[in-house]
Amino acid sequence: MTDTLTAPTATRGLVEITGVRKSFGPTEVLKGVSLTVEPGGVAVIVGPSGSGKSTLLRTINHLEKVDGGHITIDGQLVGYKLRGDRLHELREKEILKQRTDIGMVFQNFNLFPHLTALENVAEAPVVAQGRSKEDARRRGLELLDRVGLKDRAGAYPRQLSGGQQQRVAIARALALDPKILLFDEPTSALDPELVNEVLDVIRELATSGTTLIIVTHEMGFARDVADTVVFMDQGQIVEQGTPKEIFSNPQEPRTRSFFSKVLEPAFNI
Questions:
Q1: Is CB count within 10 Å lower at the N or C end of the chain?
Q2: Could you state, in order of their start, the residue ranges of all structural domains in the chain?
Q3: SS3 (DSSP) at 80
């Protein structure tokens, strides 16, 4: 391993991705990606389908193993430990413990169908952190209230709309008080009229001080909430910068070509 690992820091939510590579069979999906997201920062990753955005997100919580490079959160390696100059994968129990610091919201909600909204939110703190059921339930109600669903605490997923299910999923991700929240195209499975209710919740989270990394096709949303917009294509970061820099004055021809196809002519900052 040639990259130097930094010592753990006292920050909360510093994400450092260094030279990450990932292949599926002969196809290299991530080609040496490096990205730093500062504590409390909001990074939004955009780009065409198949560019590696979701794969990169999944490496951050070790749902996908990296083939090269490494990822650290607050200076601590994710999914691996260093012995000499080689990385060795952690045991599953250690990986699960790390994931309590990394909340993730998926495209398709992934709620337990046999549990109520409140039970879905309160389950992980009891199982993963050993909290009392009473404490987890109290916190769960607070989080459901935060996403506007306290009155639906006793409802099962089948009794909720897609937007409501995704808001429950966000509350569930928050229940472990993670350092980082990852969103993998959180509105892609929703009917258009339900998109804004989910985006409004994420907008509120973007001001909360938790580090957010969001993969999305919602360009107006990216413009509104991001500190940093990251444009990916063919497994690489082509360009990154502030929303104004990326949307109004992209420097790379590939970035300009992509936005010329996906942005409305009146889209500006």
A1: C
A2: 102-177
A3: strand
Give the residue among 66, 39, 72, 48 at the shortest CA–CA distance from 215: 48
Overall size of the chain counted in residues: 269
Token digits of residue 31: 């080609």
The type of residue at 1 is M
Strand partners, 181: 103, 212
User: Which pLDDT tens digit goes with each residue over 12-29?
Assistant: 899 999 999 999 999 999
pLDDT for res 243: 96
pLDDT value, residue 265? 61
Q: Is the full-model pTM beyond 0.70?
A: yes
User: Euclidean distance between the first and final Cα of the chain, in Å?
Assistant: 42
Distance between CA 204 and CA 208 in Å, rounded?
A: 7
Q: For residue range 151-179, list pLDDT tens digits in order.
A: 999 999 999 999 999 999 999 999 999 99
Which DSSP state fits 64?
Answer: S
Strand (E) or helix (H) holding 121: helix 117-129
Question: How far from 216 is each of 8, 105, 202, 207, 223, CA to CA, in Å?
Answer: 30, 12, 12, 18, 11
Kindly provide the b/e burial profile for residues 73-85, where b requires at least 16 CB atoms within 10 angstroms of the residue's own CB.
Answer: bbeebbbbeeeee
